[in-house]
Amino acid sequence: MKKEIILTKDGSSSIFLPELNETYHSTFGAIQEAKHVFIKNGLSLLNDKSVSILEIGFGTGLNTFITFLEAQKRDQHIQYVGIEAYPVELYIISSLNYVTELNANEQQSVFDKMHECAWEVENEIDPNFHLTKRQQKFEVITDLNTYNLIYFDAFGFDVQPELWNEEIFKIMYNSLLPKGILVTYACRTVIKKAMIEAGFKVEKLPGAPGKREMLRGFKE
């Protein structure tokens, strides 16, 4: 599938898929969306020294890299699993501007390693950050009671509604530890209903710039 690199409104890059008319991130700002949805309303709630994260849609690695940078500030150990059915080609990754836009040039090697390291095995990106990339479809995830936090960053409902149903969210619910959290940029009534039916206690929150609302779910 053809991929085009675009610039979002905050100056950070993203990928546009003409065939689906879909972008990997918000066109209002890839970096500001990632920070708002996944860090401010997700990781920042967890003060444990060690945190286990599942990302649904590893994609460009932006959420992973921002999480690494944040964990360095918070002195947290992160066990990170990124699920991606269709990995992005390295030549495209090399054209993204996240490292410079995040003023993290000294961590360029970390961003590179996240993409160049092997799939299906645990990789030590840093002594406090371990990454496992798994190439699989979301509906075949079988993890149980494993994660403190899920970043649910699948393509939008209009493009892939099958990724936003009760069955998928039940898989997410089962993979979380008790008191676990799921955050997503999306906020549709049908998505909220699917999350509730899967067992989540769900709340609406203000969305990232350019978007009115987002959802956060808790496993009780």
Question: What this model shows, in words?
Answer:
The protein is of the alpha/beta class and 220 residues long. It has a single domain (30-218), classed as 3-Layer(aba) Sandwich (Rossmann fold). It contains seven helices and eleven strands. An eight-stranded mixed beta sheet has the order 6-7-5-4-8-9-11-10, with helices on both faces. Strands 1-2-3 form a three-stranded antiparallel beta sheet, with no helix packed on it. The radius of gyration is 16 Å and the shape is globular.
Question: What is shown here, in short?
Answer:
By secondary structure, the chain is of the alpha/beta class. It contains seven helices and eleven strands.
Looking at this protein, list some descriptive labels.
three-stranded antiparallel sheet, Rossmann fold, alpha/beta, 220 residues, single chain, 7 helices
Order of helices and strands: EEEHEHEHHHEEEHEHEE
CATH class: Alpha Beta
CATH topology: Rossmann fold
Number of strands: 11
Distance, first to last CA: 40 Å
Low-confidence stretches at least 5 residues in length (pLDDT < 50)? Answer: none
Rg, Cα atoms, Å: 16 Å
Averaging pLDDT over every residue, what do you get?
Answer: 97
Number of domains: 1
Q: Report the structural category.
A: alpha/beta
Helix content range of the residues, please?
A: 25-40%
CATH architecture: 3-Layer(aba) Sandwich
Quick one: biggest sheet? 8 strands, mixed
Across the major sheet, the strand order is: 6-7-5-4-8-9-11-10
CATH level 4 superfamily: Vaccinia Virus protein VP39
Please state the overall shape, judged from the principal axes of the Cα atoms: globular
Q: Approximately how much beta-strand content do the residues carry? A: 25-35%
How many helical stretches?
7
